[in-house]
Amino acid sequence: MSQTLTLPDELFDRLNCTADQQGLVIEQLLAQWIAAAMPSRERLSDTLRDDNLLLACTQALLDGSEPPIAADWAELEAALQGSKPLHPTVEEAMSSLRSRPWTKDE
What 3-state class would DSSP assign to 90? Predict the structure, then answer.
């Protein structure tokens, strides 16, 4: 399959220069960038086998790997800073979550 992409001359020149530096043609460079930016369907379905995007993102953060979707971390941080937690302490949050008293191990 072949597609046509129209780009401004400056952007095309920058792509061409970057591709030349890497010893690739523009199509190969774009394919690499797209593959890196967007997980394959197989990889996405493996990562999201439970269809739980939040779980997959949390696991990626814990593993130190890339989350399955891109995020604007500054926007998320601002939203969290502007929010009020449901529970003022970790102990109260865990107790509520577990429906029983919870204390930290010391």
Answer: helix
Domain locations along the chain:
76-106
Residue that is written with structure tokens 């010391």 in the block: 106
- For 81-94, the pLDDT digits (tens) are 888 888 888 889 88
Average pLDDT, integer, range 97-106: 80
Whole-model pTM: value is: 0.38
Is 15:29 a contact under the CB 8 Å cutoff? yes
Cβ contact 13:26 at 8 Å = no
Q: Where are the alpha helices (DSSP H) in the chain?
A: 9-21, 26-37, 41-47, 53-63, 73-81, 90-98
